[in-house]
């Protein structure tokens, strides 16, 4: 559909953004990625993202967003804050303004590079209470960015209505299942692949993986 156009993928090196990168490479003539250094607990995330970008032959830009750590203390940026999820409250891993700022800065970069398409792996189905993963937020920001820069951006969210099992299925359809499983970093404790198995991100990833493998009839 967009074979003659250029896209920017918001890229962390995790399961979702790597699946989106494979999706983008199938849909666009030229793909680059942008990774944000916001003081996350594990710098390995940035290293993993760089390794994948290099391996897949896409240009990567790393932007310094360390101000987020100063403005929004949370469990993803502070090792002294416990990863928790209380009923009726946002998880301690929620970073106020993160997706808003990431997409906004990705758009500024995209315009300078002549790209009109931005891809992000946010998902409302498994959004864990994160308000900035909702479809209504992305659509609203898309309009705002177009008006702010007088430029016709399109923000694509290939995973928006997929649960984790369906995200695994999409990676399989893209021929990237094993790559995503082995090379990505989703774990809040900084362990590649299937991760620690204990943090919320690993539990969500594993539950989806088990569900998909059961449906596919494959082995664990």
UniProtKB/TrEMBL annotation:
<protein>
    <recommendedName>
        <fullName>7-cyano-7-deazaguanine synthase</fullName>
        <ecNumber>6.3.4.20</ecNumber>
    </recommendedName>
</protein>
<keyword id="KW-0436">Ligase</keyword>
<keyword id="KW-0862">Zinc</keyword>
<comment type="subunit">
    <text>Homodimer.</text>
</comment>
<comment type="function">
    <text>Catalyzes the ATP-dependent conversion of 7-carboxy-7-deazaguanine (CDG) to 7-cyano-7-deazaguanine (preQ(0)).</text>
</comment>
<dbReference type="GO" id="GO:0016874">
    <property type="term" value="F:ligase activity"/>
</dbReference>
<dbReference type="Pfam" id="PF06508">
    <property type="entry name" value="QueC"/>
</dbReference>
<feature type="binding site">
    <location>
        <position position="196"/>
    </location>
    <ligand>
        <name>Zn(2+)</name>
    </ligand>
</feature>
<keyword id="KW-0671">Queuosine biosynthesis</keyword>
<dbReference type="InterPro" id="IPR018317">
    <property type="entry name" value="QueC"/>
</dbReference>
<keyword id="KW-0479">Metal-binding</keyword>
<keyword id="KW-0547">Nucleotide-binding</keyword>
<comment type="similarity">
    <text>Belongs to the QueC family.</text>
</comment>
<feature type="binding site">
    <location>
        <position position="202"/>
    </location>
    <ligand>
        <name>Zn(2+)</name>
    </ligand>
</feature>
<feature type="binding site">
    <location>
        <begin position="11"/>
        <end position="21"/>
    </location>
    <ligand>
        <name>ATP</name>
    </ligand>
</feature>
<keyword id="KW-0067">ATP-binding</keyword>
<dbReference type="InterPro" id="IPR014729">
    <property type="entry name" value="Rossmann-like_a/b/a_fold"/>
</dbReference>
<feature type="binding site">
    <location>
        <position position="199"/>
    </location>
    <ligand>
        <name>Zn(2+)</name>
    </ligand>
</feature>
<comment type="pathway">
    <text>Purine metabolism; 7-cyano-7-deazaguanine biosynthesis.</text>
</comment>
<feature type="binding site">
    <location>
        <position position="187"/>
    </location>
    <ligand>
        <name>Zn(2+)</name>
    </ligand>
</feature>
């Amino acid at each position: 559909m967009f074979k003659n156009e250029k896209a920017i993928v918001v890229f962390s090196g995790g399961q979702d953004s790597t699946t989106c990168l494979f999706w983008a490479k199938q849909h666009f003539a030229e793909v680059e990625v942008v990774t944000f250094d916001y003081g996350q607990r594990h710098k390995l995330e940035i290293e993993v993202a760089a390794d994948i970008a290099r391996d897949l032959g896409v240009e990567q830009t790393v932007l310094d967003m360390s101000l987020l750590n100063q403005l929004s203390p949370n469990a993803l940026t502070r090792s002294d804050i416990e990863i928790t999820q209380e009923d009726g409250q946002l998880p301690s891993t929620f970073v106020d303004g993160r997706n808003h700022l990431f997409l906004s800065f990705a758009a500024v970069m995209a315009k300078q590079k002549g790209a009109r398409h931005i891809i992000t792996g946010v998902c409302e189905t498994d959004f864990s209470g994160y308000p900035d993963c909702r479809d209504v937020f992305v659509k609203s920001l898309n309009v705002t960015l177009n008006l702010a820069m007088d430029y016709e951006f399109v923000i694509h969210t290939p995973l928006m209505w997929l649960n984790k099992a369906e995200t695994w299925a999409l990676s399989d359809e893209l021929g990237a299942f094993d790559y995503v499983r082995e090379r990505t970093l989703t774990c809040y404790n900084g362990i590649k692949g299937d991760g620690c198995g204990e943090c919320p991100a690993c539990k969500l990833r594993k539950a989806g993986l088990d569900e998909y493998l059961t449906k596919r009839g494959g082995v664990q």
